[in-house]
Amino acid sequence: MLASLGLILLCQLIGEAVVRGLGLPLPGPVLGLLLLLIVLLARDRFALLARGPLRDGGIETASKGLLVHLSLLFVPAGVGVVQELDLLASHGIAIVVVLALSVVVTLLATVLTFRLVSRLLRQQDAR
């Protein structure tokens, strides 16, 4: 399991290094995840690569172990919110209004997009 966790973290490190080195507008862990996906696809395609942490579902087991404790990753964000309670108290109403408006705008954009696509599909079926 340690080798599998090491491989996951290595992919994340490589992704972070590439993003910072090239100045890409992409989070490093996302690029690392894409790299891990490529490694896993290569493992499934070529049996020769299925050694070490890549064999016997080691990465899958390690990632399931991480997902079980995913809620622990929200603790730092919660602590950050608690540390800024005075800021939230002074701007709380504005934050609530902006959040409510963003939800409404998102819902309207979704409905309008759905209606547009639906209309285009009906026109295409009519031809």
Automatic annotation (TrEMBL):
Record keywords, A-Z: Cell membrane, Hydrolase, Membrane, Transmembrane, Transmembrane helix
GO terms for MF: hydrolase activity
TM spans (from-to): 31-50, 62-81, 93-117
Gene Ontology CC terms, in alphabetical order: plasma membrane
Primary localization: membrane
Membrane topology: Multi-pass membrane protein
Protein known as: Putative effector of murein hydrolase LrgA (UPF0299 family)
Source species: Bradyrhizobium huanghuaihaiense
